[in-house]
Specification:
This protein is about 45% helix and about 10% strand. By secondary structure, it is of the alpha+beta class. It folds into two domains: about 1-60; about 70-265, Muramoyl-pentapeptide Carboxypeptidase, domain 2, CATH 3.30.1380.10. Strands 6-7-9-8 form a four-stranded antiparallel β-sheet. The radius of gyration is 31 Å and the shape is globular. InterPro entries: DD-CPase-like, VanY-like_core_dom, VanY/YodJ_core_dom, Zn_M74/Hedgehog-like.
Amino acid sequence: MSNVRKHRRRKNRTTILALSITTVLLVGTATVINSHKNEKTMVIKKNTHVKTDIVKNNDTLSFPDYDQTSQKDDSGLLEVLNIDSNLVLVNKNRKLPDGYEPEDLVYPSIPLNGAVKEKTRMRSEAAKALENLFAGALADGNTLTAVSGYRSYDRQVSLYNQYLETRGEEWTKAYSAFPGTSEHQTGLAMDVSSPSFGNALEVEFAETKEGKWLAEHAHEYGFIIRYPENKQDTTEYHYEPWHIRYVGVDYANYLYTKDLALEEAMPSEK
């Protein structure tokens, strides 16, 4: 009888122990599962928060005030005051100071592909961005050429007079900047073409694979198509798919996403 009781006690202990182990395992598993769920929830919330911040930042980017960044000069044009800004607005109504030349002009480290090196200078930050843009284009199978970057005031005088003689006043006013009002003098602009298009600066460049790539990806490197299609009333220039202007990645993304010309982001309040 004693042996039977002992056997029953052992059996009961074994059963209780087995149940205890099973309970611990189930609780542990549930804890791990809940832990993973919490971790995934945190990651999702974190990523959502980041995306929200990005959208919020794009919606609240601060552009220079049109009226606070210029003053009238003796010629009747507005002379820009924020000449060192990547967002300096130069157009037919806003000119650079007489004799202005950027102090940080450099040659971008890019293949010339038939271009003249002397014409490829840009301000240092813009030049670095151009190097990255050209590398990105090449990685996607597109070879670009930097045709014309910084131009001095004197060079613009020469070009403007040449265009007046060879192409007439109407064409010149539509496509060429009056000396002192050229974006090229800022050191932030570059005319881009491709060897496959003969390095020409023509509207048809927009239909080439290189031109399409430039239109779709320039903003990723901080550039905008400065004179977009169907914005002539705003920019006062015809469509120039070859003319890119450095403004910085955040601002380029904003302008591209909102489909804005630079003038539309900086309207005059007067």
